[in-house]
Write a structure and sequence with these properties.
Layout: E1 3-7, E2 13-18, E3 24-29, H1 32-48, H2 61-70, H3 76-94, H4 104-116, E4 118-120, E5 129-130, H5 133-152, H6 179-188, H7 195-203, H8 207-211, E6 218-219, E7 224-227, E8 230-231, E9 237-238, E10 247-250, H9 253-265, H10 284-298, H11 306-317, H12 322-329, H13 334-341, H14 348-359, H15 361-374
């Protein structure tokens, strides 16, 4: 690093140096010792890899984050998550701050704000809707990525996203709908859409995977559905998000019969298995609205994702292993499966009860006999 200290005509000392790009940086001091101390500090920062361009750090976070976002290479789904995090949460709160002025305490306050932020105010019948712990963590991770990039670009020396206390514990356990609730929602849908709850609940497909299906993906003879693409919320067809998502899903005769009956009345197109009234592929947004409206009519707490939870619950109740459920749902790892559905598997206490009941079976039969003999008449 080229550097020097020179006395100016006004008696002040100018310390200056050039960074590794050749750009000059200078400051003026009353005392030469202060100029030398500043120059030594800049040199040490460069040696430690902690130097940042002070002029670059004056840029607003909104400008830097927008530029960072424009050069990211990611799947459409990930790009949408990043865009939502920046547009709806990060930039409205921190966008007007200069990047170099954002401190760790500011980030911690931002996380706290996310935790308490009401997305929907409370009503007489429903509590206020807030961000889940997982959503808060995901939004924070986007901010952390932006700040890490700022460090790499030497906009700041150290990321403020360090040692941040994030929401602990798991998100709320998934709500599994009952068969009766699914039936009521199906009945509340127009005939054209009544097949979809059956297919979703019987296959465990993600909504995007279902809407990405073509007729050639359904094997009516072998009773299986091939999943190899998805329809995004933007209505674009895209690859699946992981290798594990690409799979062949076995389905029962109920699903096959429902599909056959539906297709006889509502033929598919070459592009999509499920179409709307105009022959266009059914969109994610339209299906989500249809389910929401039907759930209100049916008086059921069901979303477009609830049918997948029902399928997972049915498999677990039937004795399926973690690996079987993971493969069926297309999870990238068993960790994801357990994090979402661990509470549905029988726990140690349930197994203990079953073992003890089996061991005490004869005594249980005798107890039932005694209760029958002494039962009062009437």
């Amino acid at each position: 690093m080229a550097a020097n200290i020179a006395k100016r005509p006004n008696g002040r000392w100018r310390a200056r140096y050039r960074d590794d790009t050749g750009r000059e940086h200078a400051r003026h001091f009353v005392r030469k010792v202060d100029a030398q101390a500043w120059l030594d500090e800049q040199t040490a920062r460069m040696v430690r890899g902690e130097w940042a361009d002070p002029r670059a750090g004056r840029e607003l976070l909104s400008a830097y984050a927008t530029r960072w976002q424009s050069v990211q290479v990611s799947s459409p789904g990930t790009a949408r998550i990043v865009d939502n995090a920046l547009r709806l949460h990060i930039l409205p709160r921190l966008g007007s701050e200069r990047v170099a002025n954002i401190r760790r305490s500011d980030v911690q306050a931002f996380v706290k704000w996310l935790e308490s932020r009401e997305l929907r105010p409370a009503t007489e019948s429903q509590p206020a809707r807030t961000l889940s712990a997982g959503s808060v963590r995901n939004i924070y991770e986007v901010l952390a990525r932006v700040m890490d990039a700022a460090v790499e670009d030497r906009v700041i020396a150290v990321s403020p996203c360090r040692r941040i206390a994030l929401p602990k514990g798991h998100d709320d356990e998934v709500e599994v709908p009952t068969l009766d609730e699914i039936d009521r929602v199906r009945d509340a849908l127009a005939e054209r859409w009544q097949v979809l709850p059956v297919v979703l609940a019987g296959s465990g497909l993600r909504v995007g995977e279902l809407l990405g299906l073509r007729l050639s993906d359904v094997d009516f003879l072998r009773r299986s559905i091939r999943v190899e693409r998805q329809r995004l919320q933007t209505n674009q067809i895209a690859p699946l998000k992981s290798k594990a998502s690409r799979r062949r899903v076995p389905v029962g005769q109920v699903v096959i019969d429902a599909l056959a009956a539906h297709l006889a009345s509502y033929p598919p197109t070459e592009e999509a298995l499920f179409t709307d009234e105009f022959g266009k592929p059914l969109t994610y947004r339209r299906w989500k609205r249809l389910v929401s409206d039907a759930a209100k009519v049916a008086g059921a707490e069901i979303t477009s994702h609830s049918f997948r939870h029902f399928a997972a619950s049915a498999l677990i109740s039937g004795g399926a292993s973690v690996k079987q459920v993971q493969a069926f749902l297309g999870h990238a790892s068993a960790v994801v499966t357990l994090r979402t559905y661990a509470h549905l598997w029988p726990g140690d206490e349930d197994r203990t009860r079953k073992v003890l009941d089996a061991a005490l079976g004869p005594l249980g039969a005798r107890a039932d006999s005694v209760r029958t003999e002494v039962a009062p008449e009437g």
